[in-house]
What we know:
The structure holds two protein chains of two kinds. Helices cover 41% and strands 16% of the residues of chain A. Chain A has 14 helices and eight strands. Chain A has an eight-stranded mixed sheet with strand order 3-4-2-5-1-6-7-8, sandwiched between helices. In chain A, β3 and β4 form a beta hairpin. The radius of gyration of chain A is 17 Å and the shape is globular. Chain B is built from three helices and two strands. Chain B is α+β, with helices and mostly antiparallel strands. Chain B has a two-stranded antiparallel ribbon. In chain B, a hairpin with a 4-residue loop joins β1 and β2. The chains are: A alpha/beta, B alpha+beta. Chain B: Belongs to the MinE family.
Amino acid sequence: MAKVLVVTSxxxxxxxxxxxxxxxxxxxxxxxxxxxxxxxxxxxxxxxxMGAERRVVFDLINVxxxxxxxxxxxxxxxxxxxxxxxxxxxxRDKDALTEEGVARVLDELREKFDWIICDxxxxxxxxxxxxxxxxxxxxxxxxxxxxxxxxxxxxxxxLDSKTELAEKGGRIEKHLLLTRxxxxxAERGEMLKVDDVLEILSIPLIGIIxxxxxxxxxxxVGSPVTLNNPASAPGRAYFDAVxxxxxxxxxxxxxxxKKGLFGKLFGRRAA
Amino acid sequence: xxxxxFFNRRTSAPVARERxxxxxxxxxxxxxGKPDLVAQLREEILAVVRRHVMVEQDNVQVKMxxxxxxxxxxxxxxxxxxxxxxx
Lengths: 271, 87
């Protein structure tokens, strides 16, 4: 059965799009049929991060409004044939996202894919609420930094009250993805530690993505970091996160680009 | 100042952690039972005062301090002198 996963955070710039692309590509690499949807109407970027910016013809709004067929708007990844992208519109308004329209598109996608990843825009406005509305699972992307943690707390509250699942009395599965983590600075007391963030937000941890040059390098060339350099520290961290997402128990380590020392020093178990 | 306090002075993460815990306790409504109880109190107290005296917005000073154990709300209202009392 298809799973709808929202990648959200409240705050901008914490790594939602990077993580959507990386998780989507890692899932597809493992043989799953994956579609990644950009909900950031007006400020689309997932196409760019995935290297498909020159192939966008139709977008989510076109499909929602019935101006294009889903198959016309889906862009198949050139590297992984079971990975697709549904881009956001760059010119339209977020108000064009109707709840019924989005629900209809998601129902159609559920027939074709195993995973539907909704890349949420920042904020708590319509784009963000529409991205989370029909989700079964949420990945809350958080940086170890005060404003990001506060906004994540707010988003967790919305996930528990404003999603379809929550309104029907169910509980949406929530996972914390801690990104841009620097174990050395955290150990020195200059950065919130993994346990600090976990204690404050109290949702289970799905992965720790270390701060790494590889993330920018991958976006520069338009390739998800899990495809561009799967052996890099963030690449491995995202692959581990995907295994946990699929229900495997994987020991929680913080991969490093430098000779495995920190991974050993700061290894811990997943919650 | 010993070496330890020199190093402790530099660590900012514990400060971040404490600030977040206090802030989120308020935002989640754990402290005071309701989200933003203090802000609501401020509005209602001012409304009661306005029912009896005309108060200029400029003559009201409101200070709020939210802490982990107690929150304080300080309202200072300048009540205008009664206009030309009955002669």
